[in-house]
Hints:
The structure holds two protein chains of two kinds.
Chain A: H1 4-18, H2 21-58, H3 74-84, H4 95-112, E1 117-119, E2 122-123, H5 130-138, H6 141-151, H7 155-186, H8 191-196, H9 203-206, H10 208-225, H11 237-240, H12 250-275, H13 289-296, H14 299-320, H15 326-354
Antiparallel strand pairs in A: 1-2
Chain B: H1 3-24, H2 28-48, H3 52-76, H4 89-112, H5 130-139, H6 142-163
Helix pairs in contact in B: 1-2, 2-3
Amino acid sequence: MPSLEHIANLVHDWLNAQFSPGLALFFEFFIIGVLIIGLFSILGLVLIMMERKVSAWMQLRLGPNRVGPKGMFQTVADTVKLIVKEGMTPDGVDKLLFNLAPFIVMIVAMVIMAPLMFAKNFQIWDINIGVFFITAISSLSVIGILMAGWASNNKYSLLGAMRSGAQIVSYELSAGFALLTIVILTGDLKISAIVNAQSDGWWIFKGHLPVWIAFVIFMIAVTAETNRAPFDMAEAESELTAGFHTEYSGMKFALFFLAEYVNIFVVCALGATLFLGGWQPLHFGTGTGFNRVMDYIPSSIWFAGKTFFLIFVIMWFRWTFPRLRIDQLLNLEWKYLLPISMFNLLLATLITIMGWHF
Amino acid sequence: MSITQILFWVLTAMAIGSSLMMITRKNPVYSVLWLIMTFFAISGHYLLMNAQFLFIVNLIVYTGAIMVLFLYVLMLIDLRHDTEPRKNKWLKFAGAVAGGCLLLVIVAALKDSDIKSNVVQTGEGDIGLIANLGKALFNEYVVPFEISSILFLSAMVGAVVIGKKE
């Protein structure tokens, strides 16, 4: 069975045989761009469908069930509706920033994809600071949100953007500390090195106590960072209409919506890479029959399975917990999560130095 | 021209152009956004020198943190009314003289340095990679590094203490 690594190598060799290296590189950039855009549209369709089905299941409803088999084409119909809608630009807005903001949020979501490892040896750019790259770039999306909120010239939008900014900037700290725990245990920031370090067991099994704490903190922090309920203060509809994207309609609104789901995918992929072993199959002990069976499942399936499991967990949060107040939200971060993650970092350092992990 | 040279000139033009735009914009929010563009271009230069860690630190510290705070403050101020006081003509003149003096000092300092014989290594060299940077920081500069990290930690603890109600 051809793996993704195999296909990528075939394309690379073929391009280099046909064209000069510079031109081949250009074509590879082009192919990667097309693939990322394709991945984005598929993610948008699948994740929104998944969200609606999960919410329906949790609330004992059926969910969308009219368009296509079991309502599977509902999101396709919604997308067509959003594309043909008029993209309005209200009169009082700052035209340039208002129209630029959704694209900035989208471009940031695209750039984060670069160091993610989708399957064995299948990744765009194995930068030697992979994890740090993801946290740094994802902190830029707040610029797009602030631009959207301010340019809309609407008090609800501005309030939503301000809340979102405060939330993203504060929860970034905890998420960063949780990532650092794994970086300390591995001793490397490279994504490929972190995945390879888990070939004899995922960090969530090998690293025990500090990794468990870090994993819980990471899941809470990324839920807040992606502005998802129960932390969706930025677009709390009962208080702020729709937050920073109140004034947006048509495709510009769809870009914000899509960026939210893509960001969920990215943070869950990161969580799966760091804590659940990336593309590494589940192994118990060494050389047993169970491990052989697990090895037959392709690495891309393992990665996608873990990522979608974490996405399901985040959706589960959304439909289980009521929304926090803004002061409760900031209290949770600064008074509880931040001190806990700092002490957890010390604990992880101690365990790494003493060699107490498996 | 090689790809590296083309990228260098594009980034340089972007840095200078967006910093000029930054100081000439009337609206402070636009100024901050152009400044973010400038930082992006400068970070790109780090990447050309294979200093990936410095590239990302420059992005996270300046555009991700400091500029976001700037934007935050500016957006809360009501800027729509044209209430900005007229600046004195002499003030502009003094500013130009002061800036010119700074430029003169920098040019004079660079002129005598050995910068002309030290050509930047592009695309190679591993001095900017995180392992080498970490070794340099923790061997040669360990005391200043630790003191500055204590400074940051105390700032963070201070923020938590101020945030706590009595």
